[in-house]
Amino acid sequence: MSLHGKVAVVTGSGRGLGLAYAQELARQGASVVINDVDAATADAAVKSITDAGGSAVAVVAPVGPTETAEQLVQTAVDAFGRLDILVTNAGVLRDTVLWKMSDDDFDTVIGVHLRGTFTCVRAAATYMRANEIAGRIICIGSPTGQRGNFGQTNYAAAKAGIVGMVRTWALELKKAGITANAVIPVAATAMTATVPYFAAAVEADEKGEAMPAFFRHDLGFGTSDDVAGLIAFLASDAAAGISGQAIGIGGDRLQLWSHPEAVATAYRDGGWTYDALVDGFTGAVGDLQSVGERFPPLPEDLQR
């Protein structure tokens, strides 16, 4: 088992993608700390792992506060003797357009996704450095954080911020041998289940059938299990040389996202005045960058 003897914390792992990550880490030999805000859900997740012969315990607490982060690390140490892997998956949604988004809508999403990732990684990295453990930090991003999405100001900001933090942590933790990466999953979730475009794929998944090739191949859209293998790989010794990356996965597709780079550069003696920009901006930079996800038309046989 590739992760035998390793110990992992997976936040937001009571159900969905987080549970799939925790189960795959356990399948590969790691002992796992499950985290959820609902005790029954957390207990069921633990049971799914222990019934399969794995080792798991639960921490029932909301991600975001420093106290929860420290409790997660301490539980791993108390239950299994150490901590090697942290997967920050916990999150919530409060979708609405900018002019209707309340302070609470914004703060709640930022608090769980962005602050929660920060506090948990800080606690885990502090422990790993103090104990000379070449650990693995795996943070969950989203295509929304890479491209933007209508009605998700808070979520886009949080997910973009997570990738920015990961790049910084890769630099700061390199000397300690700790890697930090972001995974950008595309999979059937409670959110995508409500989107008509994905109806045929979600319907197939709910029936236990294979998703149509259009979704798996063309869109890179699949199941939670399609993502879980990458999580386990990045947690393993085989990925020791991979850090600071944003890696997309879903269905049959694996992607390496680029870091932001300048796509056009132009110079003008004396600098760029207002008048110069009015006259020459388009000619200087060329085509503008697109925003948002772009999906091809659904084949007729997959339309619902």
Automatic annotation (TrEMBL):
Annotated Ketoreductase domain residues: 6-189
Oxidoreductase as UniProt keyword: yes
Record keywords: Oxidoreductase
UniProt xrefs under Gene3D superfamilies: NAD(P)-binding Rossmann-like Domain (3.40.50.720)
Family as reported in the entry's similarity comment: Belongs to the short-chain dehydrogenases/reductases (SDR) family.
Protein's UniProt name: SDR family NAD(P)-dependent oxidoreductase
Native species: Microbacterium invictum
